[in-house]
Amino acid sequence: SSRQHVPKGLKTPPGPRGYPILGNVLELRKDTHLALTRLSQKYGDVMEVRIGTRPVLVLSGLDTIKQALVKQGEDFMGRPDLYSFRHVTDGQSLAFSPDSGEVWKARRRLAQNALKTFSTAPSSTSSSTCLLEEHISKEADYLVTKFLQLMDEEKSFDPYRYLVVSVANVICAMCFGKRYDHNDQELLNIVNVSHHFSNAAAAGNPADFIPVLQYLPSRTMSLFKDFNKRFLHFLQKIVQEHYKTYDKNNIRDITDSLIEQCLEKKVEANTATQIPKEKVVNLVNDLFGAGFDSVTTGLSWSLMYLVTYPDIQKKIQEELDQTIGRERRPRLSDRGTLPYTEAFILEMFRHSSFLPFTIPHSTTRDTVLNGYYIPKDRCVFVNQWQVNHDEKLWKDPLTFNPERFLSAGGTEVNKVDGEKVLVFGLGKRKCIGESIGRCQVFLFLSTLLQQLEFSVCNGKKVDMTPLYGLSLKHKRCEHFQVKQRFAVKGMN
Ligand code: HEM
Question: How confident is the prediction for the chain on average, in pLDDT?
Fold first, then answer.
């Protein structure tokens, strides 16, 4: 049907022929990122697949993706109206709702400003330069203590379960001025099952494309709906508490600053920048949700690579010893001085590509890309995994090798190569937590590795097979062990 409206002289994107009704859903169900990468080798950077009866545009290749998301940013900045997305944040999500107009723009700016204010503001403690550094340092120190305690008591442990609480505490501190205990059951019940979200929000979830599936019972979808409800309920209580204790002369955290916006802007005429009272919780929901899962997943993959490649772990520790020493904690300002550590993080992002696709986009108007006609409201998948494993960009892309990012001599990270790694998206929908996310991965890792050596129990091996979802997870592993590298007085 879409083919009837193609203007003269333009082609529709090529793609595999699918089955009637199902389209290509069978080939795409498992490891969608790998299946679409294979197909892109045959059909090119701009291709069209069908999931159910719905056509989906799939973009690959860094240049093509830059052309679409940056140069033609306005055309490609929409979000599709997908069944699963309607359940996120009551259908009011900044990240998942189909709105990409004035209201979305105003809220995105608001969220960006609030994040900036409550991460870069000076810290009241003398050992940290900004609030973000203070929060991460504190949580990372706590993790070191916790891991050592677990070793004492249990001899081995699953680090994910503790990482996720520490990372959640960083965004909690900024959003609510609050931190949770590692055994807080209410928080654990949410953050420990984020795969319930990831599984359903993955690009290519059949329920989003084959309407009849919405009426059939699905475990994935019911876990997803339940997760979203519980998450919103959890945050609603905290936001209500903030309203009760709100004082305009003492803005404590991001929630307070959103409440302030909401109360102040009431008198203004511009409806786009107003946030109705009930929407404060939705913005907080987006920041908290986006803020804990991606960072935890990245850190957890980092630990998996470190125990798989002990020599690489050792090199990072040698660099930390040489540059920072053992007398003080790592700081955010050390980032530029630790090229090997930085190269490891880039290689972890690239090799794991744990966000294999961005959140799906959609076209906001009829447009043309690389000579192909794309109609308005076309659902678009952006294949970040493909870019990060493209043989045209990377030598031996399947090999894990941090040194690929180091210039000769290993004294500097090659900035141009670093920028080819695609994990935060690009253009108008680019992640608004990128700098906070990168800071967290850096400071958590360097603090952990300065003091601890990670390994798995004798004879055990970690399973690096990624499980497909919005974010690629690995199987949990309970066999992690740590050894203290040295004791620092007053550090823990
Ligand atoms: C969106 C990656 C951390 C907030 C995104 C997107 C990606 C991404 C790929 C989708 C881009 C698109 O659709 O084109 C990551 C990674 C992170 C991270 C890899 C950590 C390593 C964070 C943090 C926050 C955050 C810490 C908040 C504190 C958001 C928001 C959006 C988003 C609100 C939606 C933007 C929009 O739709 O306009 N992120 N993110 N992210 N991220 Fe992040």
Answer: 92
Amino acid, single-letter form, for residue 448: L
Return the residue matching tokens 């203590």. 145
CA distances from 193 to 3, 84, 198, 473 (A): 42, 17, 9, 12
Ligand 1: residue of 170, 294, 440 to mutate (most ligand atoms within 8 A of CB) is: 294
Q: Quick check: helix, strand or coil at residue 84?
A: helix
With a cut of 50, say whether residue 1 has pLDDT above it.
no
Tokens of 264: 């102040």
**Which of 63, 77, 57, 61 lies closest to 13, judged by CA?**
57
176 neighbors 251 (Cβ within 8 angstroms): no
**Quick check: 22 pLDDT over 90?**
no
Residues in the chain, total: 492
Q: Which value does ipTM take for this structure?
A: 0.99
3-state secondary structure of 250: coil
Residue with tokens 């958590």: 444
**What separation in Å is there between the alpha carbon of 56 and the centre of ligand 1?**
22
Which pairing describes strands 54-59 and 379-382: parallel, antiparallel, or unpaired? parallel
Q: What is the dihedral of CA 180, 354, 485, 444, to 10 degrees?
A: -40
Q: How many CB atoms lie within 10 A of CB 326?
A: 13
> Residue 382 in 3-state DSSP?
strand
